[in-house]
């Protein structure tokens, strides 16, 4: 952006292409943190075209989050755009993460907060923490991953098999 | 077919968008083929408001682009409403072949004094080939200052969004050779500010209807379809788009703004009701004289 205001579809697409280029140049980076420092305000079309469509495109494979929000009023339009596209985006304020866009369900919000507070979680860890049966924990984590709130990677479990680590987008 | 000439006279008093429509509707449709010459007479004491000014500008430029002869006659000359139109930049954007009586000012007052009046944003051209990146900010700052008199972040964000989305819609959808326009005027005595954004395209419903895939939405009449667009959003580009008008409306309604949408042959006036624009508080007129495009006017109360 060459101004403090982000306006409209065309400007959003220009930023989108630059971000896409960065993403493709860094294939090993699963998380892209976008700083909004210096951005005073945007309409709803700009965030939709620039960041949120990109996040939706890569949902489940890469994550995009926002930091350095200097003007909290700015987020209203980002929230509207994220809700319209049904793509949650994590916003970090120091160590605290909140989501704009579609709200997580009542049944998963506590789990989501737990994931935001830890570098990663596993199904067995969630079973233990929340006293859930394995299938229930697995379903909730899978749902959060598919809906775009978190990411996951495949790892070797302590037992030697494979398991998923679910992690926050930060 | 014999050609015909039409005279339209605006009488003494304030002429807003609705009054403008009332007077042009008394004549034959100005775009009709036999009509070859149209004279707009601005009578003694006639005072054009900014929404009417932009509508007259659009219509006159549309008609001249169709090859008709257009004349504007100002009974009070430069000391009357002609002077106001000069100040808001009307003549800077009026097609040069449109004749006026008296002659147009040789030096534009709008150009001389641009951006110096805190109650005004002069009529700005909206054309994708000449994008003015400062326009939404200028409109927003004037309105925010007029309404709050101070640095109100939420209001600034809301007003910026209203204008940014409406103008970007024109860049995206209007597809017309005649420019769109935007302007703002604060009326202190009326405790209100009018903001106008318009284009001379096909009209929002004519653009959207062919692209609607939902049978339920296809069956909506014009009023219901506009209400749906304002409250839920709709785009010819699919479900992920279409938040521009909805976003504008959702911000404007927080500040209880009235909304007037002039479509090619109809007019819909909406007032806020329970934080949405509703059908049962709407006023609709159809069979109006054709004006290309979509003309949107928000009226904000200042206090």
- Give the low-pLDDT segments of chain A: none
CATH-defined superfamily of the largest domain in chain B = Histidine kinase-like ATPase, C-terminal domain
Number of strands of chain A: 8
Instruction: Label the overall shape of chain A.
Output: elongated
CATH class of the largest domain in chain B: Alpha Beta
The biggest beta sheet of chain A, please? 4 strands, mixed
The N- and C-terminal alpha carbons of chain B lie at a distance of 55 Å
Q: What is the beta-strand fraction of chain A?
A: 15-25%
Helix-and-strand structural type of chain A: alpha/beta
CATH architecture of the largest domain in chain B: 2-Layer Sandwich
Percentage of β-strand residues of chain B: 15-25%
- Quote the average pLDDT of chain A: 93
Count of strand segments of chain B: 15
Spell the H/E element sequence of chain A: EHEEHEHEEHHHEE
Taking the sheet with the most strands of chain B, its summary is: 7 strands, antiparallel
Mean pLDDT across the residues of chain B is: 89
The shape of chain B, in one word, is: globular
Class by helix and strand content of chain B? Answer: alpha/beta
Query: Biggest chain pair contact, residues each?
Result: A-B, 23 and 23 residues
Q: Give the helix level of chain A as a range of percent.
A: 40-55%
Helix and strand run of chain B = EEHEEHEHHEHEHHEEHHHHEEEEEE
Provide a short characterization of the protein structure.
The complex is a heterodimer of chains A (170) and B (303). By secondary structure, chain A is α/β, with parallel strands linked by helices. Chain A has helices at 8-25, 45-57, 75-85, 106-116, 123-130, 134-146; strands spanning 5-6, 31-35, 41-42, 63-67, 89-93, 96-100, 151-156, 162-167.
Describe this structure in words.
The complex is a heterodimer of chains A (170) and B (303). Chain A is an alpha/beta fold. Chain A is 44% helix and 21% strand. In chain A, helix 1 (8-25) packs parallel to helix 2, helix 2 crosses helix 3 and helix 5 crosses helix 6 (134-146). Chain A is elongated and about 55 Å long. The relative contact order of chain A is 0.14. Chain B is α/β, with parallel strands linked by helices and 303 residues long. Chain B has 2 domains: 1-113, 2-Layer Sandwich (Transcription Regulator spoIIAA), CATH 3.30.750; 115-303, Heat Shock Protein 90 (2-Layer Sandwich). In chain B, 35% of the residues lie in helices and 25% in strands. Chain B starts with a strand and ends with a strand. In chain B, 44% of the residues are buried. Classes of the chains: A alpha/beta (170), B alpha/beta (303). Chain A binds chain B through residues 3, 5, 7-10, 41-45, 48, 53, 56, 71, 73-74, 76-77, 80-81, 84-85, and chain B through 133, 136-137, 153-154, 156-157, 160-161, 164-165, 167-168, 171-172, 233, 240-244, 247, 250.
């Amino acid at each position: 952006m060459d101004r403090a205001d982000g306006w409209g579809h065309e400007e959003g697409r220009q930023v989108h292409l630059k971000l896409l280029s960065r993403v493709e140049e860094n294939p090993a980076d699963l998380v892209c943190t976008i700083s909004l420092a210096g951005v005073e305000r945007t309409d709803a079309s700009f965030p939709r075209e620039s960041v949120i469509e990109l996040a939706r495109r890569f949902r489940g494979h890469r994550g995009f989050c926002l930091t350095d929000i200097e003007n909290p009023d700015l987020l209203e339009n980002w929230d509207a755009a994220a809700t319209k596209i049904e793509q949650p985006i994590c916003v970090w304020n120091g160590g605290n993460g909140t989501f704009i866009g579609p709200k997580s369900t009542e049944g998963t919000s506590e789990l989501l907060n737990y994931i935001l507070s830890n570098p990663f979680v596993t199904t067995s860890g969630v079973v233990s923490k929340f006293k859930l049966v394995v299938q229930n924990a697995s379903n909730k984590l899978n749902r959060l991953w598919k809906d775009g709130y978190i990411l996951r990677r495949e790892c070797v479990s302590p037992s030697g098999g494979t398991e998923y680590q679910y992690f926050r987008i930060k | 077919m014999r050609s015909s000439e039409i005279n339209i006279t605006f009488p003494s008093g304030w002429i807003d968008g609705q009054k403008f429509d009332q007077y042009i509707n008394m004549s034959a449709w100005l775009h009709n083929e036999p009509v070859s010459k149209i004279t707009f007479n601005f009578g003694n004491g006639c005072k054009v408001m900014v929404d009417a000014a932009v509508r007259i500008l659009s219509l006159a430029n549309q008609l001249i682009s169709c090859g008709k002869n257009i004349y504007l006659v100002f009974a009070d000359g430069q000391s009357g409403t002609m002077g106001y139109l000069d100040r808001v930049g009307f003549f800077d954007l009026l097609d040069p072949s449109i004749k006026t009586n008296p002659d147009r000012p040789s030096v534009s007052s709008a150009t001389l004094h641009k951006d110096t009046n805190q109650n005004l944003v002069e009529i700005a051209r909206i054309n994708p080939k000449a994008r003015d990146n400062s326009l939404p900010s200028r409109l927003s700052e004037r309105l925010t200052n007029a309404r709050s008199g101070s640095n109100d972040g939420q209001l600034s964000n809301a007003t910026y969004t209203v204008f940014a989305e409406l103008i970007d819609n024109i860049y995206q959808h209007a597809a017309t050779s005649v420019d769109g326009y935007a302007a703002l005027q604060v009326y202190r005595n009326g405790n209100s500010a009018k903001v106008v954004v318009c284009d001379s395209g096909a009209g929002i419903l004519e653009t959207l209807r062919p692209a609607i895939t939902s049978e339920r939405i296809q069956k909506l009449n014009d009023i219901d379809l506009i209400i749906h667009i304002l409250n839920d959003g709709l785009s010819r580009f699919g479900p992920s788009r279409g938040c521009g008008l909805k976003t504008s409306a959702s911000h404007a309604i927080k500040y209880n703004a009235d909304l007037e949408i002039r479509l090619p042959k109809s007019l819909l006036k909406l007032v806020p009701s329970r934080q949405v624009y509703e059908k049962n508080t709407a006023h609709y007129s159809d069979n109006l004289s054709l004006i290309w495009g979509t003309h949107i006017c928000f009226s904000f109360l200042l206090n």
